[in-house]
Amino acid sequence: MKLQKDLLYNKIKYLLYFFYDKNFIYLYCKLKRKMNNMEKKILYFDMDNVLVDFKSGIDVLNESIKNKYVGKLDEVPHIFSYMKPIDGAIDAFKKLSEKYDCYILSTAPWNNPTAASDKFAWVKKYLGDYGYKRLILSHHKNLNKGDYLIDDRPTKCGVDKFEGEVIIFGSNEYPDWESVLRYLM
Ligand SMILES: [Mg+2]
Questions:
Q1: How far apart are CA 145 and CA 142, in angstroms?
Q2: For 46-104, what is each residue's pLDDT tens digit?
Q3: How far is CA 155 from CA 11, 111, 139, 163, 177, in A?
Q4: For residues 85 and 128, what is the distance between their CA atoms, to the nearest angstrom?
Q5: End-to-end CA distance of the chain
Q6: Among residues 21, 48, 74, 87, which one is catalytic?
Q7: Residue 51: which region, alpha, beta or left (left: phi > 0; alpha: psi -120 to 50)?
Q8: How many C-beta neighbours within 10 Å does residue 90 have?
Q9: Residues in CB range of 39: below 8 A, 6 or more apart
Q10: How far apart are the C-alpha atoms of 82 and 119, rounded to whole Å?
């Protein structure tokens, strides 16, 4: 009887050690990840015309839809789900994630009810784990703390009041991802 009890206690002890170690390793990894990211500078990426080729979404619309939404194409239902990445954008995001704490900072047009969910799906599809829980949708980009913001519209949605450095994508200085990588890496 005593032997059975001892065996049972031993089993429980080993199980406790096992879970303790697992939790310890998990917490250690989480803390390490957090510490690594704390050391990294914070870098934000705009989506439309920075990561996302907005025109590629317009190109697949038929003429009647284009006519119906003249001047407000960003309100076409599901238009964001049709868009492809800009050349080099995905590779750049992955490379920059090694050096910076990267987030996607984008706006979802107020009058397009599918925009937010389409952008969320886009990040999952094209950035996978690199974009995991890193999408921020805001019309007030200046409220996000950070070191760099890569955006194509320097005066919209609080970009002009952003506390860090704004890298204007599509400008003469940064016409493409190659030039941005040269500067930031
Ligand atoms: Mg944009």
A1: 8
A2: 999 999 999 999 999 999 999 999 999 999 999 999 999 999 999 999 999 999 999 99
A3: 64, 21, 12, 13, 21
A4: 13
A5: 67
A6: 48
A7: alpha
A8: 17
A9: none
A10: 10
Q: Calculate how far, in angstroms, residue 15's C-alpha sits from the geometric centre of ligand 1.
A: 52
User: Which amino acid appears at position 110 of this protein?
Assistant: W
CA of 28 to the centre of ligand 1 (A): 38
**CB–CB of 50/107 below 8 Å?**
no
Coil, helix or strand for 134?
Answer: coil
CA-nearest of 174, 185, 143, 177 to 52 is 177
Q: What is the pLDDT of residues 108-143, one digit of tens each?
A: 999 999 999 999 999 999 999 999 999 999 999 999
CB atoms inside a 10 Å sphere around CB 102: 25
pTM for the structure as a whole:
0.79
Query: Can you tell me the distance from the alpha carbon of 20 to that of 39, in angstroms, rounded to the nearest whole number?
Result: 28
Tokens 């090694």 belong to residue: 98
Task: For residue 161, give both structure tokens.
Answer: 């009041």
Q: Is 46 a catalytic residue?
A: yes
For ligand 1, the distance from its centroid to the CA atom of residue 1, given in whole angstroms, is 73
130 vs 99: CA distance, rounded Å: 13
